[in-house]
Amino acid sequence: MKKTTYTDQDEAMQSYITQIRKIPLLSFDEELELSRLIQQGDEKARRRLIEANLRLVVKIARSYAAKDVPLMDIIQEGNLGLMHAADKYSHLRNVRFSTYAGWWIRQSISRFLVNRRRAIRLPHRKEEILRKVQLVYHTLSQTFMRQPRIEEIAKEVGVSQEEIEFVLSMTSGFISLEMDGGNEEYGVMMDVYEDYTYSPELALIRQSSRDATLKALKTLKARERRIITYRYQLNGGERQTLKSIGDKMGLSPETVRQIEIRALRKMRDHAKDLQAYCTEAM
Questions:
Q1: pTM of the model
Q2: pLDDT value at position 272?
Q3: 130-to-121, 173, 182 alpha-carbon distances in Å
């Protein structure tokens, strides 16, 4: 059997890219319509949505390129994530498919790379810490809408930062893909075990509902907007009581309560988008 050379791999890669470039891209309206058809069991619609986004997988896969793993292997794993995204994508979220699928593509590639590279078996206690680290990492990622820092993970897991760093150093837990000033603390933590907490749907719903909430706030008067922001932590701070808000604004707690009720009524009338997100989340 002929041994595959780098030239053969390059030619196969170029041929693949040439083929997928011929596939027309989709407009947002076309993506939403295909989603409706897929939910009705239309296999042709599913195939079209997947094929039109194969270039997205190649783009993402290239950022994970490594000397020890053929790029085509990475692309194939990314395609599995793309297929999964096509099955779960919903037109009700009113978001571009590429935004949603990108999470699943990266998840699939990340898991593949770590499972392929990891060869060191840790002691039982270290394995348990690693499991907890992974769970906390993905939970905090969705809570903060960013990659959590090592000290934040250590605090949640209940072990020292040094022990977290040691466990990760014995695995391929950190693969620096998007460095921040050369600081690997912000590198991307890859999966080692199957991640049951990973939920692009939940992250998307949270972000979209927050965006819709901020949009609805614009319909309020300045005083109403300020009270709602204080009461529901929209500025990232702690939720405040009617009394504490009243003290800040020179109002009685009852006046603050009445303004809050009036503001929520206004937002309810202008927040049809929020109703869609809440329905999806249930």
A1: 0.50
A2: 55
A3: 12, 9, 24
Burial of 145 (0-12, 13-18, 19+ CB in 10 A): exposed
> Average pLDDT over the chain, rounded to whole?
76
Cβ atoms of 40 and 57 closer than 8 Å: no
Quick: pLDDT tens for 58-67.
Answer: 999 998 887 7
- Set out the domains of the chain in order of their start, with CATH numbers: 6-117 (1.20.120.1810), 124-189 (1.20.140.160), 200-281 (1.10.10.10)
What pLDDT score does 206 carry? Answer: 63
Confidence of residue 133 (pLDDT cuts 50, 70, 90): confident
On the 0-12 / 13-18 / 19+ scale of CB atoms within 10 A, 196 is exposed
What string of DSSP letters covers 170-211? TTT-EE-SS-BTTBGGGSEEPPSS--SS--HHHHHHHHHHHH
Separation of alpha carbons 156 and 130, rounded Å: 13
Residue 111: which residues within 8 A CB-CB, separation 6 or more?
77, 190, 191, 194, 195
Structure tokens at 205: 């719903």
Angle at which helix 200-217 crosses helix 97-117, to 10 degrees, equals 140
Cα–Cα–Cα angle for 158, 164, 165, rounded to 5 degrees: 155
